[in-house]
Design a protein that fits this description.
One of its GO terms (molecular function) is transferase activity. This is Spore coat polysaccharide biosynthesis predicted glycosyltransferase SpsG. Keywords: Transferase. Helix 1 (about 15-30) packs across helix 14, helix 3 packs across helix 4 (about 90-100) and helix 6 (about 185-195) packs parallel to helix 7. The strands form two sheets. A seven-stranded parallel sheet has the order 3-2-1-4-5-6-7, sandwiched between helices. The protein has 14 helices and 13 strands. It has about 350 residues and is an alpha/beta fold. It has two domains: about 5-150 and about 325-335, Rossmann fold; about 155-325, Rossmann fold, CATH 3.40.50.2000. The termini are close together.
């Protein structure tokens, strides 16, 4: 049986986006009778550790130097390595690749020093970019390579979404496994500022964020509930009339599910993906988190349209469903296992 290592970022500040897309690829590779080992500090985010453990994947603590990686990968007897990191030094990639171990690196625009046999950029319109590649590398780019987890694929509708009966809209808001930038409370304030009826559920991964959301006072015809991290994410998204999230890796999951997505750009490295997603007219842009922090009402015009226009919600949901077909992880697994 082939053995593949997955070296990815995770942490309270970094979030869980790297782990989530690596899990999607790992599920597909496991389906093809390969063994997976994650190398990351999953224990720093218990929910992420639970997600890895639930799939039966082993975990080794993260290492940081080139020599430490070579030693660990040799000890584990790996046949290939997947990298997904913003934090690793470029010397790690070059050392591992120079050792002869087949490598695949997941990137987002800027390679950040990543060097690998195969580079994957699953972002919208990434295929239009023409970056200089490391010697003897290939780059697979764009939405055909979006990696989607089993949980999401199991809830993907077989047909394009259709308009739902009008009524008080159901809103679901989540910002990854940690909400590292505190977007949840700001979105709750913006929803209340619309003055319109809604039933909203906001995910708050820690007590501090939960208290901040709970401190937001809805108007008489508005309902605001706060919950902790949930393993029923896809079901919640499918149930909602509007889902609000960060413009990170979860965007592609929302589109695959046929969700009406309202996106917040919570950090600078999401800006390109945010602008491109909004440009497709498959998602609505609520703006920069910094703008919401300064004035929650800055998102009110877009939110009012999304809360009141069921035809617009259907149009967005259908457009997203058509963009992401859910087969990207199969294409990436083909490329990875083809190296071994």
């Amino acid at each position: 049986m082939k053995r593949v290592g997955v070296r990815c970022d995770v942490g309270p500040a970094r979030g869980i986006g790297h782990v989530m897309r690596c899990l999607a690829l790992a599920e597909e590779v496991k389906r093809r009778d390969a063994e997976l080992v994650f190398v990351c500090d999953a224990d720093t985010v218990p929910w992420a550790a639970d997600q890895i453990a639930a799939r039966g994947f082993a975990v080794q603590p993260a290492v940081w130097t080139p020599d430490a990686h070579l030693g660990l990968f040799g000890k584990l007897g790996l046949d290939a390595v997947v990298f997904d990191s913003y934090d690793l030094d470029a010397a790690v990639y070059s050392a591992v690749r120079a050792s002869g171990l087949p490598t695949l690196a997941i990137v987002d625009g800027d390679f950040r020093g990543a060097e690998a046999d195969v580079l994957i950029d699953q972002n919208l319109a990434a295929e239009l970019d023409q970056p200089a590649l490391p010697p003897n590398s290939i780059r697979l780019a764009g939405l055909p390579y979006v990696m989607i987890r089993d949980e999401i694929l199991g809830h993907r509708p077989a047909e394009p979404p259709v308009a739902r009966p009008s009524g008080v809209p159901d809103v679901f808001a989540f910002f990854g496994g940690t909400d590292a930038f505190g977007a949840g409370p700001q979105v709750a304030r913006a929803l209340v500022a619309t003055g319109l009826p809604f039933q909203a559920t906001v995910v708050a991964p820690n007590p501090s964020l939960a208290a901040q959301v709970a401190a937001v006072t809805p108007q008489a015809h508005q309902h605001l509930e706060v919950i902790g991290p949930t393993d029923q994410l896809a079901a919640r998204v499918r149930k909602a009339d509007l889902t609000i999230s960060a413009s990170g890796t979860s965007t592609w999951e929302l589109l695959c599910l046929g969700a009406t997505a309202g996106l917040v750009c919570v950090v600078d490295n999401q800006a390109m993906g945010y602008e491109r997603a909004i440009g497709t007219c498959a998602a609505a842009g609520l703006g920069l988190l910094s703008a919401l922090e300064a004035d929650p009402a800055s998102a009110v015009p877009v939110l009012k349209r999304l809360l009141t226009d069921s035809v617009e919600r259907e149009r967005l949901a259908r457009a997203g469903w058509e963009l992401v077909d859910g087969k990207g992880r199969e294409r990436v697994a083909d490329a990875l296992l083809g190296l071994i």
